[in-house]
Write a structure and sequence with these properties.
The structure is a homodimer. The first copy, chain A, is α/β, with parallel strands linked by helices. Chain A has two domains: 180 residues, NAD(P)-binding Rossmann-like Domain (Rossmann fold, 3-Layer(aba) Sandwich); 169 residues, Dihydrodipicolinate Reductase, domain 2 (2-Layer Sandwich). The first copy, chain A, is built from twelve helices and 15 strands. In chain A, the strands form two sheets. The first copy, chain A, has a nine-stranded mixed sheet. In chain A, strand 13 and strand 14 form a beta hairpin. The interface between A and B is large, with 53 and 53 residues.
Chain lengths: 377, 377
């Protein structure tokens, strides 16, 4: 029932080992890029900033199976790795940058947008430098380490006339979209409460355990999925949050960030939610919506593939995994932002949404510190 | 995955319709009454106080398949119903009482103990009157409507030299006992957090919606299972509780008691828990324990049969329903108290435990009212 991060990464390793031709069969040609089907021509060129697990293991393979996106530049502190990836993705070595000559990317006309996949603490700097270099920015979640940084990022992109999207792929993902739609249609009646959890047992030595790099602990990294879900499933923003955090397992991992955090939220309509996150135990990634006429479970709810919705309410019972293999969520995300750029739309998950969540996260942390619920003003 | 109360009651209807001979085959002759196997003779005589769903549908059928318990008297305001049940259980009509002549039960030497299955608001009165009549008392949960009542009940039983047990059957039930034992053995490593939920969509007109009869809403009635579970699974008592309650569905049911309540608890070792309860939506009845080395789920966790434990941690993975058909939990409970009476033990779930939980419930309600966490002193 619960799938550990380890199981999941192992599974991805298996998928990544498929030959390209086999992987391309996984692509569903419909649904995720209306514009691409209409024109089929112009692709948005992405510069990848940061070559870590998510960019190399998910986003770049996702772009490869996308319809309107392509990889045209790389930014990395590791020249060898960057050249290896450049070779794999057909990127010219002249389009491989490092963090010192990053600004030269401004002169690379192939690069429309940057995908920022650096440690959280570097998101704001490279979003701002990217916008100043004239590029649109798709920034990984969490948007940054603080509300102040989020505000600066939004201001920089606005000043440069560039678009800013936060990589909240779940808001483009079929299981989560179906859940939102079913709730809107009244499948569970009136939503009464939601529980959501996301957490895993982190390996020692990860940058995520460094406060300066990560901005915070599991709340910033994966708790944000539960926070987001409570908002998009209800269509509301909480009016009050209350949290408790703890460090139990004194094995040296948790010198700087929390190990566990649980929090509750009260929403304007009276909906109340409980959420859990952890770097010290396997919580899986789930939500459970309870309504006056039924319930809805997603387990897993937020990971890269294999999402599974179960529900019983107004209408036929639902018990079905979503056929949406990795890295399709990332292909969809790249193409959504490409559509926004090419058709001059605002992204579905703009910087303002990342800022809203960062405000909520700061309030949850404040609640933990002050030992009291905090109103959302 | 979730089973509604309605599904469940339907299922019980089916089991109750079995002929007695077939039902007696459901009895496991080992395990739940050590003393009965040793002597096999003397049975404890129960007087049933209150002929409602739980006594007629569960406890009395449970006593019928028990080893050391028998039904010898009935107390009810409905003479017809009482005489019908007396006939079914072989109780003399002279041993049928009402709430006016209740004290006469003192002279009935067959009655060792009373099973109090009245609305919560009447538990204290009949426990105290029962103790004064010289009877031991097995009282349904929640113990009463207030801490003050619980204290009076304990004092009355102590003054009368009678035993007092609260009907927390989960603490005698195999799935919950196995979970406790596995956690003690380190199966999930260090427990980090727990989530537990128990709630259902209540029918209009139930006495549970009347504050005076019920003492409170779903927190008192079913949230108490989650509260208890967080304590017996961790072996700890919380040091702080924080709750939010809400009424959303203004259909007239929730004039006096809360509709939904979620709460968090902080335990001395750093364990943090989230719990949900509701009378306005189907939450099922579950717990999920997250530890440093694994996790453990019970779903359902607290209902009368079909409990199902899933776990992955140190040792073989577990995915197994418990073969413990209704009404065996009630048979086990009746026999445990019978053992206590015959062998002069203290019950595993004495009045002091009911009092502890009532204190916690009052603090959770206070936290909801005052909008702040409350320390457990």
């Amino acid at each position: 029932m619960k799938r550990s991060r380890r199981d999941f990464l192992g599974m991805l390793g298996g998928a990544a080992a498929l030959p390209l031709a086999a992987r391309s069969e996984l692509v569903n040609p419909t649904g995720y890029s209306r514009a691409a089907q209409a024109s089929g021509e112009r692709k948005v060129g992405y510069g990848i900033v940061g070559l870590g697990r998510i960019s190399m293991g998910q986003f770049m393979p996702g772009v490869r199976i996308s319809q309107r996106s392509k990889i045209v530049a790389l930014v990395s502190g590791h020249r060898d790795k960057a050249e290896r990836m450049a070779g794999r993705y057909g990127v010219s070595t002249q389009s491989v940058y490092n963090y010192e000559n990053f600004e030269e990317i401004a002169h690379n006309q192939e690069v429309d947008a940057l995908y920022i996949a650096l440690p959280n603490g570097m998101h704001s700097e490279y979003t701002i430098r990217g916008a100043k270099a004239g590029k649109h920015v798709l920034c990984e979640k969490p948007m940054a380490s603080s509300v102040a940084e989020c505000e600066q990022m939004i201001a920089a992109c606005r000043a440069a006339g560039r678009k800013l999207m936060i990589a909240y792929r779940c808001q483009l993902e079929p299981t989560n979209l179906r859940a939102i739609e079913l709730i809107k249609q009244g499948y569970v009646g009136t939503v009464e409460s939601i529980h959501s959890a996301d957490g895993f047992n982190i390996s020692p030595g990860e940058w995520r355990l460094n406060k300066k790099m990560a901005g915070g602990g599991p709340m910033m990294d994966v708790g944000i999925y539960s926070l987001e879900a409570c908002c998009y499933l209800t269509g509301e923003v909480p009016v009050e949050v209350s949290g408790i955090s703890s460090v139990i397992d004194h094995d040296g991992r948790f010198q700087e960030v929390e190990e566990n955090l649980v929090w509750t939220m009260r929403f304007p309509s009276g909906i109340i939610t409980t959420c859990q996150t952890s770097y010290g135990s396997e919580l899986g990634n789930t939500f459970h919506v309870s309504g006056s006429k039924g319930w809805m479970d997603a387990d897993p709810a937020f990971i890269y593939e294999g999402l599974h919705l179960r529900a019983k309410g107004n209408g036929a019972a639902i018990d079905q995994p979503t056929d949406d293999p990795s890295p399709r969520q990332f292909a969809r995300q790249a193409d959504h932002f490409a559509d926004c750029i090419l058709e001059n739309h605002e992204p579905k998950t703009p910087g303002e949404l990342g800022l809203r969540d960062m405000r909520l996260i700061e309030l949850i942390y404040r609640s933990c510190q002050e030992g009291r619920p905090v109103k959302v003003s």
